Amino acid sequence: MIRWPNHTDAWRQWRDAIGSERMHHGWLLAGKSGLGKRDFAMAAARELVAQAGVPQPQGNHPDILVLTYGPKDDKAERAAADGKPFELARSIRIKQIRAMQKRLTTRPTLGARRVVIIDPADDMEKAAANALLKSLEEPPQGTFFLLVTHRPARLLPTIRSRCRTLRFPVLSDSQLAAMLEESGLPVDPAAIAAAEGSFGAALRFAEQDLAPLAREIETLLSGGEEGFALRGELARLIGPRADRDRMQAVFDLAQALTARAARNTDDAGRRAGLIDAYAALVALAAEAPTANYDPGMLPFEIGSLLVAAAPASEPAHG
């Protein structure tokens, strides 16, 4: 079990709410990716559904429903049913919300309360978000919603307005170092710098050996390139068929290093270029899972955005 030193205030607010006369039914757990929000959601849900004198299961709890990425299609659903590897969808779909709502027409199994966790809530399809809104507007008695969100602005304003927000701060460098050490991983200063306060990012840096990629990204940001040589090396390091987790790690790393470069420069023009590159990387990361990008060309697109932010760079597309 990971110990999260950045959860102290969230736990105080949560337990104060549980002890109050009226517990809010909807909660947003907000903060950048890799801050332990899902761990908090699971632990908080268990506290909420526990009832004195009623034994609680150690594993999956019948009164805690977790909605996250499901099987991509019918073929993936059959593979999942057979216990075989399957490809995940890139969003949380309306049929998942509908299935959850059907469950809510019955009473909780063990006690008087039930918790629905949606992670990440900002990756719900529009139709799914609209369907969820109906449950948030008229929640069944004893039902509570915990929406894990890395980008709250992507949620419908009407969903945000019906939830109370718990904010999770980023971790300090010393906290990240201690957590890496406790996890048996090397305390790599480059990993800590690139993580930008996210333990999840620091873990991915260590587990996916992102140090060479970090050096390549910093080279592209610092001086641009002539031709496509460095972009080609970036693509080689990412890999020709990088899976979803690796591409997300690459996007997180590129965004973190671009943001750090923007903070560290005194040149207003360069800072503006880096901010534009950061915004473009964020937009590309959001589009990539659903847009029809050629996997082999996506690393070159990332490289082009980095080159565009470098001093005296060539145009983003050569």
TrEMBL record:
Gene3D superfamilies: P-loop containing nucleotide triphosphate hydrolases. One of its GO terms (cellular component) is DNA polymerase III complex. It holds the Pfam family DNA_pol3_delta2. One of its GO terms (biological process) is DNA-templated DNA replication. SUPFAM superfamilies: P-loop containing nucleoside triphosphate hydrolases. This is DNA polymerase III, delta prime subunit. The lineage of its organism: Bacteria, Pseudomonadati, Pseudomonadota, Alphaproteobacteria, Sphingomonadales.
